[in-house]
Amino acid sequence: MNDLADRIIEIYRDHGAAWDAGRGRSLFERVWLDRFRALLPDGGAVLDLGCGGADPIARYFIERGFAVTGIDTSPALLDRARERFPGHRWIFADMRDLRLIERFNGILAWNSFFHLRGDDQRRMFDVFQRHAAPGAALMFTSGPAEGEAIGALDGERLFHASLDPSEYRALLDRHGFDVVMHVAEDPDCAGHTVWLARAR
């Protein structure tokens, strides 16, 4: 599946408009976004890794007074984010190589981090730690168990991977995060497996 993992950025660049058009706006994620928000200071800074077109996830935070910095590798999706929310910052970058000078009160990788190979996911914990302010909230989605899976986007095969939950816990602890809540295949969130943690 290595060739499919290599094509993730290309697929979202080529099919970003289709993904944005098909992205539901019902905010089924609200229960988790509310939990994440409860750990943030009012008006805090949120880093959205894999922000897409900024709707509905970034919109949720913007409408509640947070300053959002979004990272994505799809120019088309970043253009949509800039059109929708010109007062916020939208950066063309690969999350794996991210080195911003500031730290954030919240770091979010919702349905983005799980497109990375296992080794890239392990290295992402350095990125999380480097960009986390003291007490920062971190939330990401993963698979329920170690393995790889293939989804689809606009007719293209789409790579997903997950580490074992015990390894995520160890990586979080090693990088200075405590698990606040973890639910595998949450029935209240369309079956998503979600991790919510907080920097020590």
TrEMBL record:
Transmembrane segments: none annotated. This is Class I SAM-dependent methyltransferase. The keyword Methyltransferase applies. One of its GO terms (molecular function) is methyltransferase activity. It comes from Methyloraptor flagellatus. One of its GO terms (biological process) is methylation. It is an enzyme of class 2 (transferase). Pfam families: Methyltransf_25. InterPro entries: Methyltransf_25, SAM-dependent_MTases_sf.
